Amino acid sequence: MQFDDDADLDTSEVRDVRGSRVPGGRAAVGGGLAGVVALILGLVFGVGPEQLGLSSDDPGPAATASTQAEVGRACRRGADANAREDCRIVAVVNSVQDFWRAEFPRRQGRYTDARTVLFTGRVDTACGAATSAVGPFYCPADRQVYLDLGFFDDLRDTFGAGDGPFSQAYVVAHEYGHHVQNLMGTLRRAQDGRQGAASNSVRVELQADCYAGVWAHHATTTPDGSSGRPLLVSLTEADIADGLDAAASVGDDRIQERFQGRVTPETWTHGSASQRQEWFDVGYRSGDMALCDTFR
Q: Residue 128 above 50 pLDDT?
């Protein structure tokens, strides 16, 4: 996975509040991998958000100077994305949104940007306050993706995924898949509260995996009507294998087997390891979001 060293990065698409103090409050478990750590662990251990440390009056870590200016200075070019993790996230967000901005008009739609918020410890959102324990998530109320970079350590050390950079790109693209669903009106189908292998919750998550694959298919090509090189200039089959490995590591069956020693499909909210890999692959091999109809 290689970005164009000379490409400009747009840091306005990422808000960096790492180290900032935010007030406590009710936890928000939005779409995406938030459920992997919060909902799934809650189901496995039979505890709610409060017991998982997602809601507290603890003010969190001490405030520090905002790092937004630092990221603005450090993440200027694709070369920075090839060298730094936070700059890599900026580049992936730029690439994902470049694709969806071009794709929506092709389908008579209009894409609205979604910003990614980098945080540590705890963050306040329009969906409520959340801690790092919920993992990355998308909040439809403010149309922002929230990400603690420490999750990628958990993805590797706790869930057994590889540490290739495309594992991180897959996670970000999945969350933007939820933003696409929100714009298209399909995200609300997961709000019926049902669980299970055939639930709408699972179908929404698998569709977001498929949309992540669609982006990956087009990531190294220049959108129609654009000039110049794409931001992402190299994406190998080894990179895709890293993404598939990450998708499998957060399958409901893998997590349940790891944490409770048995698989209970009736409590699934995200889909099995093989399903998550399959739907990412459908999107990646076809590049056609119309084939991502997991509700059919």
A: yes
Identify the pLDDT of residue 159.
Answer: 84
* Helix ranges (DSSP H) in the chain: 34-37, 39-45, 68-74, 78-83, 85-106, 151-157, 165-184, 200-218, 237-249, 252-260, 273-286
Tokens of 254: 């893998």
Residue among 2, 22, 246 nearest 135 (CA)? 246
CA distance 118 to 68: 10
Average pLDDT over residues 160-166: 86
* CA dihedral sign of residues 279, 285, 291, 296: negative
User: How far is 291 from 55, CA to CA, in rounded Å?
Assistant: 39
Q: Which token pair is 16?
A: 């960096």
Interatomic CA distance for residues 173 and 170, integer angstroms: 5
Share of the chain above pLDDT 90, in %: 65
Residue 31 has φ and ψ, to the nearest 5°, of -70, 165
Q: For residue 34, what are the contacts with CB-CB under 8 A and spacing of at least 6?
A: 28, 130, 134, 135, 136, 137, 138
pLDDT of residue 24: 41
Say if CB 184 and CB 264 are below 8 A apart.
Answer: no
**Could you tell me if residue 185 is left (phi over 0), alpha (psi between -120 and 50 degrees) or otherwise beta?**
left
Most confident of 115-129, 185-199, 272-286: 272-286
> How would you classify residue 193: left for phi > 0, otherwise alpha for psi between -120 and 50, otherwise beta?
left
Antiparallel, parallel or unpaired: β 115-118 and 14-16: parallel
Query: Which pLDDT belongs to residue 275?
Result: 96
